[in-house]
Specification:
It is a single chain. The protein is mainly alpha-helical. Helix content is 77%, strand content 0%. The longest helix is centred in the middle third of the chain and has 28 residues. The mean pLDDT is 82.
């Protein structure tokens, strides 16, 4: 079950990243973050009310609040790093955030078997390669590297924090709701500051463009929150070290989605990385 939930997480995060990447070509990144998370807040709020999740409130919700603060910071850092580029360096470096939850699992006493350790090493190498790393070309700005590492740490921290936010399914709904409300608050504050400094909250076409994109924005928000939920379930069912690595295969999904929808050709290193990541997945599942 750990592998099943974690792989579902990869699928959902990969599709959410693909959708978010497409939307940021038409809409300001902050607007994408805030509006997509607002849709998740509405849906999760209804689920919490229907399931009585309010009764599960306890001190663990502070983990959800922390995840809600860290998440938007990590995402905006990643978008900024992608803008500075080159993407072939930034994208695979962003996947290194898996080291955070894996490290937490090891500190808490988890000791994967030899086969699982091998699977972790192989899968991480495959994920980095699937991002299409560039070994030659323009030099990378130090700011891009710093922002990417900040984003990677943030992504990994969110995975570790949300896994600790609840011990029950109804409590998980509440934790995800709190996380998304915090996301909206932090993202909204950042959007307000951006507008005050002369940034744009709306694209050239105005609110009509945002309204037309609402279904896609809702999909991104709901896929992202569903991924957080399936990851929390994966981390609860089995070793966090295994769940985190399998959940971090989402760059492979994003690359394949770009190939299928946008007809982007996979570079040789990306195709090899996808295959290597699959081998790592099989080793983890077998272990």
């Amino acid at each position: 079950m750990t592998a099943l939930f974690a792989l579902a997480t990869s699928l959902l995060w990969g599709l959410a990243d693909f959708g978010g990447g497409l939307l940021t070509r038409r809409l300001p990144a902050l607007t994408v973050v805030v509006v997509s998370q607002c849709t998740a807040v509405v849906v999760l709020g209804a689920i919490v009310v229907a399931t009585g999740g309010w009764h599960q409130a306890d001190h663990r919700l502070w983990f959800a609040v922390a995840a809600g603060v860290v998440g938007p910071v990590a995402m905006l850092s990643f978008y900024k790093a992608l803008a500075l580029g080159p993407m072939g360096v930034v994208s695979p470096l962003g996947s290194l955030g898996v080291a955070v939850p894996v490290g937490v699992g090891l500190v808490l006493g988890e000791r994967p078997g030899v086969l699982q350790f091998a699977g972790i090493a192989v899968a991480v190498a495959g994920v980095v390669m699937a991002g299409g790393p560039q070994f030659r070309g323009a030099p990378v700005q130090r700011q891009a590297i710093a922002l990417t590492l900040l984003a990677a740490f943030g992504f990994g921290a969110v995975m570790a924090l949300i896994a600790e936010a609840s011990t029950t399914v109804t409590g998980l709904f509440l934790a995800l709701f709190v996380q998304r409300v915090t996301n909206v608050a932090v993202g909204g504050a950042a959007l307000y500051v951006s507008v005050k400094r002369g940034g744009d909250a709306l694209p050239e076409g105005g609110f009509g463009v945002v309204r037309a994109a609402l279904p896609a924005l809702a999909f991104v928000g709901l896929a992202d929150v569903a991924a957080n939920g399936t990851y929390a379930m994966a981390a609860r069912q089995g070793p966090v070290t295994v769940a985190a690595v399998l959940a971090s295969l989402y760059p492979v999904v994003t690359a394949l989605a770009a190939r299928g929808v946008l007809k982007e050709r996979l570079r040789g290193v990306q195709a090899a990385g996808a295959g290597i990541a699959l081998v790592g997945t099989l080793l983890l599942a077998a272990g």
